[in-house]
Automatic annotation (TrEMBL), chains A, B:
Coiled-coil positions: none
Protein name stated in the entry: UspA domain-containing protein
InterPro entries: Rossmann-like_a/b/a_fold (IPR014729), Universal_stress_UspA (IPR006015), UspA (IPR006016)
Domain annotation UspA: ranges: 10-166
Annotated source species: Dipteronia dyeriana
Length: 171, 171
């Protein structure tokens, strides 16, 4: 059959972050990949931002003292837990048993997501359209228009099918 | 439940064209949306290019005489049939009965696809990553880099989730 792509045990990576949109992406994934097939594996991927480039001995070290760096790392760990717990509350209510793996990466989101999808030989990547790139300023907006979003990048660079989900209010 | 998006009867639009990649997109769609649920509806969407802007009374009318325009329309109709038959051969071999609707649009592919998805209130759009935009020249390549592909545009502009599928050889 032309274009045969069937596979009974799929590995589906969902890139989750602090946004409600990424939880919608997870929910979409559960409804469409896990409602009738318990052999699929859900991989929850969270990417922490890269560590600051300044060290405590940098000329601007007073801005990133050991205490501040530690506080930032602490905040990052708390964020991981918060997002993973939120994701868990989404799939816990799902009636089917789901095989779940959690992966936490660190670095530029687009590179880490593409790298993990490649490394795990994932069958599908599911993510929100605006994930890992909240618009906070005109500069952010300019960057997104010029460089595209993380989902744009991933859709272009990963080999597997990519599902881009939008939060209803952001449609 | 946060991000609840479940729906038992989904309308899935697959944008098909002459490429093998779009048949892969169709196959992916069948495997993931129709293997366990026969209540979903598959909408096969083909978009014919817009008619030439020159009429038979144009200064360059000799280039687009009535005969040539008729021949182009004839070619367009044959292409529709060819693509739809190819798509049929993909879903005919699928073991489940599938509700299929065929839609043929005419115009700029990106606008027609977004318009049809909106009008039908589709639940998901599935398409190939390079559909409706084969690179034939350096100019085409430049345009794609600058303006993005049809799938980029659709992923940004339609409200529903968008699945972008790649042909294995083009990964």
């Amino acid at each position: 059959m032309e274009g045969e792509m069937r596979k009974t045990e799929q590995k589906i990576v969902v890139a989750v972050d602090e946004s409600k949109e990424s939880m919608d992406a997870l929910s979409w994934c559960l409804s469409n990949f896990f409602s009738n097939n318990t052999n699929n594996t859900l991989v929850l991927l969270y990417v922490k931002p890269p560590p600051p480039v300044y060290s405590s001995v940098d000329a601007a070290g007073y801005m990133f003292s050991a205490d501040v760096i530690e506080a930032m790392e602490q905040y990052g760990s708390e964020m991981v837990n918060s997002v993973m717990q939120r994701a868990e509350s989404v799939y816990r209510n799902f009636e089917t048993h789901i095989n779940v793996e959690r992966v936490v990466g660190c670095g530029e989101a687009k590179d880490v997501i593409c790298g993990v999808v490649e490394k795990l030989k994932a069958d599908t990547l599911v993510m929100g359209s605006h994930g890992y790139g909240f618009i906070k300023s005109k500069f952010d907006y300019f960057c997104r228009v010029l460089l595209g979003s993380v989902s744009d990048y991933c859709a272009k660079h990963v080999k597997c099918p990519v599902v881009i989900v939008k939060h209803p209010e952001e449609k």
